[in-house]
Design brief:
The complex is a heterodimer. By secondary structure, chain A is of the alpha/beta class. Chain A contains nine helices and 14 strands. Chain B has twelve helices and four strands; from the N terminus they run H-E-H-E-H-E-H-H-E-H-H-H-H-H-H-H. In chain B, strands 3-2-1-4 form a four-stranded parallel beta sheet, sandwiched between helices. The N terminus of chain B is likely disordered. The chains are: A alpha/beta, B mainly alpha.
């Protein structure tokens, strides 16, 4: 990684067994608040570095092009899907799939906390964050418009001829609503991509950061219950005195963490995800096969109608 | 006012602190907030008390000794122990302690207002110290570090534009009892850890006597009222004296103005701090 960040590939996952599975690069960066040109240049350098290292996909945190606590800067840093910055990222995705966070403006002037997925040289998928936290230190609904769908997309890991991974994107607070993960799982996902800008807070209980403990539990639970890989990329750095705790990681469908979670500094870390892991976990725990969508739908319907009747 | 909890108040949750996690966050905070605005250095008023001592050692770890100026600013009535403790902490941190005696400038002012009471004199001393720190800030391109803890800030127990003034405050979200826990983890000198907390603005001043409550008790009440968001009734049910709880809550309410910038009369569509909302780190 360029700059001061440490690149880490302790297991040599990128070099070992080339061609098996996909190497995921987690770009745990500290974006400069409100400075899209600087952040974009950094993204392009990291994408090149990760691709050269054998990564099939590189995942950046939430709002990685803009920083998080933007407040009234939101309209100033917003991009459109046809912005030249977006084209530059698309052009960088010929060898490696790229997942980037940005503020995206729509034609009718709504600003979304968005994650863009680039593949084979083009923008292929956009997720608008559905759950905009507006409590505690968060104020997203004041500045941003909420998304209204959870759709899956394909990742090819920079190798378009191979069978793609089916992925779903949950941005930070989306992770705290299990119905969101369940909707993606129902459409079939192998990989949950979770870009995040989680501020560290909660020290008065006298143990590790409260937010880090919560995310640890959520990520492992989703991986196990939805028997999917969870790719969690959180940011680091400080904005207005608020520190982001990092801890980016990949969790396997059996709930085990691949390697070690990243620390609280900038890092570019690599993990290999393999289909065999997914297959073994789903044989051992056929939870998705056994899911009773009919019961879920009927019960949702019943609850909805009962409520509608008053 | 009662200063001890009823027996049932013992054994309830107190604000603890993971000293390793917090030290890491605060070192990063100091480094980041200083470097981001184009500075390398900080200046801290080191009184020899636990708050400024902790801030001094945190800053030294975050930035290195060459980037920390520790200034001891005694008045002629200051306790000799304060000087000894400030010196011990600066030695522990590997810093040269600078001494700026504020007696002459304070006395010069009060020659013209001889009837000023000790509160006015204390406030004046606090603001003279602030003016010295901000002069050094300009002279050395060093940001002023704040040393007000969460207990003081919530109770309004500080001098507005005096000791409450700073560019960045690493310990403003730590209760006094948490500051002590941090100070013990940093193995600050024994005297700093054990002496009675005092602003040392007049001879024999004691925080806990002046506040009429111990830090151990008030931190518990503040923690349960504000961090844990318990109702007054719930906090009283934990075993605290209702009058004490009400008094603490009243202090927090009536000192809210001290924790906010001056109020601006609303006129335009975008008024600073109302609907003109940019991050402090705007452009950094």
């Amino acid at each position: 990684m360029t700059g001061t960040a440490a690149a880490s590939d302790p297991a040599g996952v990128a070099a070992r067994h080339p061609g098996r599975g996909t190497v995921v690069a987690l770009a745990q960066i500290a974006p400069r608040l409100g400075d899209v040109p600087t952040n974009l240049a950094r993204h392009l350098a990291i994408i090149n570095e990760a691709a050269a290292h054998g990564a099939g996909m590189v995942v950046f945190p939430e709002l990685s092009l803009t920083g998080y606590f933007l407040k009234d800067l939101v309209p100033d840093v917003a991009l459109r899907e046809d912005s030249e910055e977006v084209s530059a990222l698309a052009a960088a995705s010929t060898r490696v799939d790229v997942v980037v966070g940005a503020v995206l403006e729509t034609d009718d002037v709504r600003f979304h906390n968005a994650v863009m997925l680039f593949r084979d040289g083009a923008l292929r998928h956009v997720h608008h964050k559905v759950y905009l936290p507006t409590y505690g230190i968060f104020d997203e609904q004041r500045y941003l418009a909420a998304g209204d769908r959870f759709q899956t997309c394909e990742l090819t890991g920079g190798a378009p001829r191979r069978a793609p991974w089916r992925a779903g994107i949950l941005i930070c607070e989306d992770m705290w609503h299990p119905s969101a993960a369940a909707l993606l799982a129902r459409q079939g996902v192998d990989v949950l991509l979770c870009p995040s800008a989680s501020p560290g807070r909660g020290v008065s209980r006298g143990q590790a950061l409260g937010t880090a403990l919560s995310y640890d539990a959520i990520i492992r639970t989703y991986a196990q219950l939805f028997t999917t890989f969870v790719v969690y990329c959180n940011r680091v750095g400080y904005e207005d005195g608020i520190g982001f705790w990092g801890g980016s990681r990949v969790v396997a469908p059996d709930g085990s963490v691949l390697g070690e979670p990243a620390g609280a500094d900038e890092a570019l870390v690599y993990h290999r995800i393999e289909r065999g892991t997914l297959r073994r976990a789903r044989i051992a725990y056929p939870l998705l096969r056994d899911e009773r969508h009919d019961v879920n739908d009927a019960e949702t319907d019943r609850i909805w109608h009962r409520r509608a009747r008053g | 006012m009662s200063t001890t909890p009823k027996p049932t108040a013992s054994g309830i949750d107190a604000p603890a602190v993971d000293t390793g996690v917090v030290a890491g966050l605060l070192r990063g905070f100091i480094r980041d907030e200083v470097h981001k605005v184009g500075f390398d250095s900080v200046v801290v008023g080191l009184s020899g008390g636990v708050d400024s001592s902790l801030v001094t050692v945190l800053a030294r770890e975050a930035l290195g000794p060459e980037h920390v100026t520790a200034v001891f600013m005694p008045y002629r009535t200051s306790d000799a122990q304060s000087a000894a403790d400030a010196r011990a902490v600066s030695e522990l941190a590997g810093l040269a302690l600078e001494v700026v005696d504020i007696s002459a400038q304070v006395d010069a002012y009060f020659e013209h207002v001889p009837d000023a009471d000790r509160t006015r004199r204390g406030n004046k001393m606090s603001r003279e110290r602030m003016s010295v720190l901000y002069d050094i800030s300009m002279a050395r391109r060093a940001l002023v570090l704040g040393t007000s803890n969460k207990t003081e800030l919530l109770l309004g127990y500080g001098t507005l534009f005096g000791d409450m003034a700073s560019a960045l405050n690493p310990i403003g979200d730590l209760y006094k009892t948490q500051v002590y826990a941090m100070a013990r983890a940093f193995e600050l000198p024994q005297s700093v850890l054990t002496k009675a907390p005092s602003a040392d603005l007049w001879v024999g001043q004691s925080d806990e006597e002046e506040l009429g409550i111990t830090y151990a008790l008030v931190d518990l009440i503040l923690f349960h009222l504000f961090d844990e968001r318990r109702t007054r009734e719930d906090v009283v049910a934990l075993g605290f004296d209702a009058d004490v709880v009400d008094d603490v809550a009243r202090r927090v309410r009536t000192s809210q103005y001290k924790r906010r910038p001056p109020v601006i009369a609303k006129l335009s569509e975008r008024t600073i701090d109302r609907d003109f909302r940019y991050p402090r780190d705007w452009g950094r």
